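Dear support,

I submitted the protein below through the web form. The confirmation email said the job was done, but the results page showed an empty box. After a refresh the structure appeared. I'm attaching both so you can tell me whether what I see now is the final result or a partial one.
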Amino acid sequence: MPPDSTVHRLPQVFTHADADRAGVSKRQLYAWRDSGQIEPLGRGLFMKAGTRGDPDLIEIAARAPDATLCLISALARHDLTDHIPDTIHVARERSRRQPRTAAPVTWHRFDQKTFAIDREEFEVASGLRLGLYGPARSIVDTFRLRHLEGQDTAIEALRRWLKRPGSQPTQLLAVARHFPTSEKAIRAALEILL
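What the results page shows now:
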């Protein structure tokens, strides 16, 4: 089947509702899927064939634009752990509901007052971005929630971060001040490691 020009007018990642608004029938949408012009990402969510990026991260970004990679997933992205998580750890503000995803996600609910601290974004597909906590925040969160990932994971991430050029304990402590439950543990670990 030759490519349909209508599919090119849709964004790289689109919903069934986006296709409806563009005048695409359900029959045409599934014909595109069957011919390989689009790929389903989950219920009612599609991406054009050839879209570069991790389909799981694309789905998360499309369903929850404020979603932010956290904990072990953020540590792995910053090369602060060798552990490969079996699910993607994602934070949202406590007031937000967790969307259903086909991607394997463990959702965490973080306080609205501290949600944006050391939060960055990166592109997961053309025009689609996902949040990512920076290295300092990722380490602080791992200490703060060490009952989930373990003290050893937190210490190892801190050790690896300290070996990097330009890493300053004062930078880490500035982030930790916003999270009093972790600051004491981080100070104790720094005293041992430095």
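Response: this is the final, complete result; the empty box was a page-load delay. The chain is about 45% helix and 20% strand.
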